[in-house]
Amino acid sequence: MKKASFIAVATAATFMATAATAATLDDVKAKGFIQCGVTTGLAGFAAPNNDGQWEGFDVDFCRAMAAAIFADPGKVKYTPTTAKERFTALQSGEIDVLARNTTWTFSRDVNLGFEFVGVNYYDGQGFMVKKALGVKSALELDGARVCVQSGTTTELNLADYFTANGMKYDSVVFDTADEVREAYLKDTCDVYTTDQSGLYAQRSVIADPEAHIVLPEVISKEPLGPLVRHGDNQWGDIARWTLNAMIEGEELNISSANVDDLKANTKNPSIQRILGVNGDLGQQLGLSNDWAYNIIKMVGNYGESFARNLGEGTALNIARGLNAQWNKGGILYSPPLR
Amino acid sequence: MTTDVQGSASSDSMLRDPRVRAIFYQILVIVLIVLFVAYVGHNTAINLEKRGIASGFNFLSQPSGFGIGIVLLMDYSSQTSTHLDVLIIGIINTLAVSLSGIFLATIIGFIFGVLRLSKNWVVNKIAAVYIEVIRNIPLLVQLMFWYFAVLSVLPLVGDSIRFGESFFINNRGVNFPAIIPSNGFWVIPVTLLVAIVLSIIIGKWARRRQDLTGQPFPVFLTSLALIIILPVIATLVMGSPFTMSYPEFGRFSITGGWSLEPEFLALLLGLSIYTGAFIAEIVRSGINSVSHGQTEAAHSLGVRPGMTMRLVILPQALRVIVPPLTSQYLNLTKNSSLATAIGYADITAIFAGTSLNQTGQAIEVIFITMLFYLVISLLISMFMNWYNKRIALVER
């Protein structure tokens, strides 16, 4: 008797546990915030500022999702993850979305059970060395000791690149970007390798940035983007179109400054659709119709976020390059919102 | 069921039988545990499948694709080696640092444990300060200290501290000449083995002779001579069947020769100095447990203090020392997993770290890693229990 009721309870619990994973949007609405996985600290992408508030390019994506869902970009809780922990955190449901300069690869998309929602930064892996070494090209790095962060595509590209060029290297692997930088600065290794954006970010916080040089070689394609778990398409759609709304916003010249004016006065049907004046794009996503208006009003479009966190004038001083709009020489191209 | 056959009266009394009830509760507990495990397993399997996450152990035969900093005893290439090779390298690296750590920690512990009891005030206090300071700072902090504050502020490669022509210390570790075996090299380890076996036989013979005749025999010196002289003779006879590889300054670092990486050194120093402090306390308590009368008795027979310690006190103290010593050895082995913080390629860092991340198969990888630590801990326990039995007091 006891046994039978236990089995009943256990079976019920199994069904409940599996059913509960279905609708992330409902879970998020119920708890009142998005749990967003970010880096443990990478200047410009995600790092706490002097007031202890997280800010950066990836953080802006989390804030944009909160703006779309809650009309309040502050309703985000951040989980700092190392490169190694990030996937397990997302798989296990500890976080709802991972916005952590993560490279979109086949095996991560397919084998690990994730859904990449797009690319928010086109990057490539590079090398940073001390100027004093006199190295001008990555092909001169035979025999070098290379500091690298564990659990990244960087580790794999590094092995591929050195093998392809018949060179040897010693790798020293650390968990966090800060440990890697520390070891590089202490001269435990000759080379610091990661995505170029990461190198610029790390160089910006080094005491003497001029003493370090980022080598010209880019040895890989690193399309970085946010990702969610497989199996909840509605949640994946919200994340995907949050990103696209920011990109489309820049293309249509909708910024946080002029969004109110445009919403009231524009005659452009594309802008009317995205801002929810016409159509029901928001409702199709299961959100309110002013979701994209809220994103652009409260967080800004893609260009504003880039300029605020990474662009010229910031400590990172990264040019738009590949990350410019498709009609301005880059490859940023949002599918139409209609 | 059997209870029904015996009638209602006896089944009533069986309900009150404490033995039957005990068995019933034990069965109940087992059933609950089995159900719980089955539930967890079932739920995990369903959720993995739902999210399209791969499972199974096929990933072990997939190429790893990443480089490993420290590879011992094996060939490793990121292109052809598999995640299974990564696992084996991780195991070898963990064993390398654990076993050297256990060896070093034991020596440190015994020395400081004895010093802690010294009548010399300065020596005594130095040992006390070492033990108290080291025991009360977290190991992870100490590892960081050794790696980032001690080893990485050593001179740069170009300004290495030199001992002779080919022994260097710098912030990339310690470099020294390597012996590269050539034809006929096997003779040297074989003669070394023969010398060790001979020493053991001589030791047994000498003990029997001393028991019978009371005549002592210089076993230690004889063994040392055997162990040094036999391999030297073998080397000369075979005409030096090896070549030396000397460290040289390369474009970035020192190339050639053998080197101890700073990651390994920091972990080894951190682990053995930390565990050594605990072992010192164990040794001190072990020695204190031997009645002072034993020392006085030995002294009154004219036995010198060094011999008293070696022949009278320590053998008795060992009985108290060995059981807690075992748990320190286990701690050291398990603590070696902190390697990941300072970039040493142990099983936790490369297999439960990088391999897990590249394959995404957290459950399988963590399961294998836990199984490894469990097996290795049980093996150490078994060995120490065997040793403990051997030195236990034989009652006549």
TrEMBL record, chain A:
<keyword id="KW-0813">Transport</keyword>
<dbReference type="GO" id="GO:0006865">
    <property type="term" value="P:amino acid transport"/>
</dbReference>
<keyword id="KW-0732">Signal</keyword>
<dbReference type="InterPro" id="IPR051455">
    <property type="entry name" value="Bact_solute-bind_prot3"/>
</dbReference>
<comment type="similarity">
    <text>Belongs to the bacterial solute-binding protein 3 family.</text>
</comment>
<feature type="signal peptide">
    <location>
        <begin position="1"/>
        <end position="22"/>
    </location>
</feature>
<dbReference type="InterPro" id="IPR001638">
    <property type="entry name" value="Solute-binding_3/MltF_N"/>
</dbReference>
<protein>
    <submittedName>
        <fullName>Transporter substrate-binding domain-containing protein</fullName>
    </submittedName>
</protein>
<feature type="domain" description="Solute-binding protein family 3/N-terminal">
    <location>
        <begin position="33"/>
        <end position="262"/>
    </location>
</feature>
<dbReference type="Pfam" id="PF00497">
    <property type="entry name" value="SBP_bac_3"/>
</dbReference>
<dbReference type="InterPro" id="IPR018313">
    <property type="entry name" value="SBP_3_CS"/>
</dbReference>
Automatic annotation (TrEMBL), chain B:
<dbReference type="InterPro" id="IPR035906">
    <property type="entry name" value="MetI-like_sf"/>
</dbReference>
<keyword id="KW-0472">Membrane</keyword>
<keyword id="KW-0029">Amino-acid transport</keyword>
<feature type="transmembrane region" description="Helical">
    <location>
        <begin position="185"/>
        <end position="206"/>
    </location>
</feature>
<dbReference type="Pfam" id="PF00528">
    <property type="entry name" value="BPD_transp_1"/>
</dbReference>
<dbReference type="InterPro" id="IPR000515">
    <property type="entry name" value="MetI-like"/>
</dbReference>
<dbReference type="GO" id="GO:0022857">
    <property type="term" value="F:transmembrane transporter activity"/>
</dbReference>
<keyword id="KW-0812">Transmembrane</keyword>
<feature type="transmembrane region" description="Helical">
    <location>
        <begin position="23"/>
        <end position="41"/>
    </location>
</feature>
<comment type="similarity">
    <text>Belongs to the binding-protein-dependent transport system permease family. HisMQ subfamily.</text>
</comment>
<feature type="transmembrane region" description="Helical">
    <location>
        <begin position="338"/>
        <end position="356"/>
    </location>
</feature>
<feature type="transmembrane region" description="Helical">
    <location>
        <begin position="362"/>
        <end position="387"/>
    </location>
</feature>
<keyword id="KW-1133">Transmembrane helix</keyword>
<dbReference type="GO" id="GO:0006865">
    <property type="term" value="P:amino acid transport"/>
</dbReference>
<protein>
    <submittedName>
        <fullName>ABC transporter permease subunit</fullName>
    </submittedName>
</protein>
<keyword id="KW-1003">Cell membrane</keyword>
<feature type="transmembrane region" description="Helical">
    <location>
        <begin position="264"/>
        <end position="283"/>
    </location>
</feature>
<feature type="transmembrane region" description="Helical">
    <location>
        <begin position="218"/>
        <end position="244"/>
    </location>
</feature>
<feature type="transmembrane region" description="Helical">
    <location>
        <begin position="53"/>
        <end position="74"/>
    </location>
</feature>
<feature type="domain" description="ABC transmembrane type-1">
    <location>
        <begin position="91"/>
        <end position="384"/>
    </location>
</feature>
<dbReference type="InterPro" id="IPR010065">
    <property type="entry name" value="AA_ABC_transptr_permease_3TM"/>
</dbReference>
<feature type="transmembrane region" description="Helical">
    <location>
        <begin position="136"/>
        <end position="157"/>
    </location>
</feature>
